[in-house]
Amino acid sequence: MIDKGAVLPMFYLPPVEYFININTHKPGILIEREEHFPKQTYRNRADIYSPDGKLSLVVPVVKGSKNHTKIKDVKISYDFRWQRLHWMSLQACYRSSAYFEYYEDDLIPFYEKRFDYLFDYNEQLLNFLLKAIKMPLALNYTKTYEPAYPSLTDYRASMNPKKELISAQKPYFQVFEERKGFLKNLSIVDLLFNQGPQSMNYL
Predict the structure, then answer these.
(1) pTM above 0.85, yes or no
(2) Does residue 92 surpass a pLDDT of 70?
């Protein structure tokens, strides 16, 4: 059992803050996989920078995935072609960024292949992202649900789209910043597509 570090939820294309927290506490990172699925969180949504400002990409889940479904058991819904929508949005927002083409071929499969479970999808994306930003990390997972971890910093509820990021984030170049200014704590892909190999230095 990890006795110091942090426990984090599993997010979809997590925000920059998530990777700053991982970098701060690694290698003692514990990923929560036994919690009940909370709605309207980064577990199935990511924020990117569109020409009109912040755009949320939401992975739809099968109805019935309410608060009493364990996160590892939540299934992705394919009632509409959300993968195509997400990929088209990423292309539209970042095609002109410095490094989009550099990562494009590795990302496309996540928007072509069907994944049954949200957790598995997010997990494979997270492994890709850690590799892309050159942050080697062996992921450890919770085996039971614990309401509290006295020896770990608990981020399971603190990182939320509805909560304004209090900590400062130094600006980096963003494609549409001349329209809306610097938007902090967007998905890590915003940093990756704009900063590429320099992303780890930023974190």
Answers:
(1) yes
(2) yes
